[in-house]
Amino acid sequence: MPISFKKITIIKPDDWHVHLREKNILKTVINYTTSFYQRAIIMPNLCNPIVNCKQSIYYRNKILKAQNNNKKFQPLMTCYLTEFTSPKELEVGFSKNFFTAGKLYPSYSTTNSEKGIKNIKNIYSLLEIMEKIGMPLLIHGEETESTIDIFDRETKFIDNTLDPLRNTFPYLKIVLEHITTKESVDYVVDSNSPYLAATITPHHLMLNRNDMLVNGIKPYFYCLPILKRKIHQIALRNAIASGNKSFFLGSDTAPHYDKNKINTTGCAGIFNAPSSLLAYITVFEEMNALKYFQAFCSENGPKFYNMPLNKEKITLVRKPSQVIKRIKIGKNIITPFLAGQILNWSINI
Ligand code: OTD
Ligand code: ZN
Ligand code: ZN
User: How many domains does the chain have?
Assistant: First the structure.
């Protein structure tokens, strides 16, 4: 796009990977997501995870009540898969729209994943049903064996778990969430399959591990999967700039209070809801790929999930804007991704 490019109007985007939490945090963070996004896949990793239809309906109602600026926002709920999930629960939940997808957390892979899956073979009966009914499987793709280096966990997961799983269930729709490596990009591109897609976060596009670890440790950049080497960041940037339709927007916005991030054992997660869309467009512009921006934000996701495109539009203007510095929730603070930074883009809301 030429430098004279001043504004861009696109179909209102969806965020296919969001953590909204509960109670006071939910009431605050939801309004950032609904300002930019029409629909969002809601991750089920609450302290007490969403494992059945009843919990999902309850949580969905809480979300709808908490938002105050977009009555049309549609939360798309997911079921946290456990080794005790009944196939019936998934089948009923999916057919009645209580669940849009099932979420696979390898046990101890990320926040509140302890009740996740220890041995993938133990949920093969669930995967069989999901394949049959066309229910997407969303995966946190990291191997969690303690002997595997944290920087290799995603790549090992592809070799040890994902590839065998896809051979067993070739028609199971899979989203490899928040990919972070060149190997993952290559795996998705080489598969060239309508049954495999991946989301990419703004922070993995903008940062690599040097940003987190050189010149002082930056707790606000600590997330899982952890930031990788620059070659991987470049691979992700090239993936979105290629226009490949297997990649779409999933911000993985994951709020934590500052007191829990700045701690001897700081929590993983980056709260990017206030800046995610502006961060994505910044990267697309840097990559000279604005022509693929709408597809990444608003088309590739719905097409994969078999949902209609949104009717609303949103306009982004090439006018500097500052990302909010901090968000107060009672006595607590949440610091967003790129807090206080000036970005080249703003939004007409
Ligand atoms: N990663 N933090 C969280 C989730 C994600 O793996 C993820 O999806 C979280 O706090 O829920 C994080 O670093
Ligand atoms: Zn994850
Ligand atoms: Zn997440």
Answer: 1
